[in-house]
Amino acid sequence: MKIKSNLVKFTAAAALTITGLGVANATNSNSTAHQVAAATTKVKINYVPGYGINIWDNYNNPSFTGNRIKHGEVVDVISSAIDAKGKTWYEIGENQWIQARYTVDANDDNAAKKASQAGMVGKNVTSSSKQAAKVVNLANAEVGKAYAWGGNTPNGFDCSGLAQYVFSKAAGKEISRTTYSQIKQGKTVSLKNLKPGDLLFWGSASSPYHVGIYVGDNQYVHAATPAQGVVKDSISSYFYPSVAKRVLN
Questions:
Q1: Marked catalytic residue, from 44, 68, 71, 210
Q2: Active-site residue identified among 159, 194, 211, 247
Q3: pLDDT by residue (tens digit) across 19-58?
Q4: Is residue 140 helix, strand or coil?
Q5: CA distances (Å), 141 to each of 7, 136, 145, 179, 230, in order?
Q6: 222 catalytically annotated
Q7: What CATH number belongs to 10-117?
Q8: How far is Cα 36 from Cα 173, in angstroms, rounded to an integer?
Q9: For the chain, which residues make up each domain, given as ranges?
Q10: Which listed residue, 43, 152, 187, 211, has the most CB atoms within 10 A of its CB?
């Protein structure tokens, strides 16, 4: 991988720590997002064994480059940045960015073990079927796609269309088209005992208005709104699902 050699200049006075890496504010930062320089640091991709994370062309309004880095690979971080939503990104090459949350310090032998114990990697993988892992991988790959009312293709999704597409393409599991019918499929599971690949619903069991795909680590992928498109969010108290269904065996 070709690594960009010229780092962004930074001032020591503005030094801070982001995700365990020492960095400093870039002189060309703005009010909504900023890039910071970092001494070259090695990180290990900490995602799902057998799968990879997307490489994006930038950290603000990113576009998928078509390339991925597999779980377990080690890469050099040449700079860091925080996007307008407060998420940390790492630059690993020219026009090549990855999300920091899918990495651990490559020099910390205990990092992956700690992440697994926290539920970030190992537990979700070992407790999930191969089908569930494929569902999670494809759901994550659709992040950034556009929202379209009635859409169920990569050209645009609505919430139930995304669920239908991902389960069909990734697991060969045909589920129905709307939230009203999807909530009637599979078996109901506790929201405290979720597994990757479970479907999350908002609204009542008889009248759900939204659905998302649980991908582990307290996160889910869903086609949110026309303005947001397909995004990954964390389960939170202010937007807490009401029902979870397990449609995979």
A1: 210
A2: 159
A3: 333 332 333 333 345 555 544 589 988 865 567 899 999 9
A4: helix
A5: 29, 9, 9, 22, 10
A6: yes
A7: 2.30.30.170
A8: 44
A9: 10-117, 127-246
A10: 211
Q: Which long-range CB contacts under 8 A does 216-223 form with residues at least 24 apart?
A: 216/119, 216/120, 216/124, 216/128, 216/136, 217/119, 217/120, 217/124, 218/119, 221/139, 221/140, 221/142, 221/143, 221/162, 222/159, 222/162, 223/145, 223/147, 223/151, 223/157, 223/158, 223/159, 223/161, 223/162
Residue 242 catalytic?
no
Domains 10-117 and 127-246 equal at CATH topology level: no
DSSP state of 136: H
Contact 169, 157 (CB under 8 A): no
Please identify, in words, the CATH class of the domain defined by 127-246: alpha beta
- Is 152 an annotated catalytic residue? no
Residue 196 and residue 129: Cα distance in Å, rounded? 9
pLDDT digits (tens, 9 = 90+) for 223-249: 999 999 999 999 998 889 999 999 997
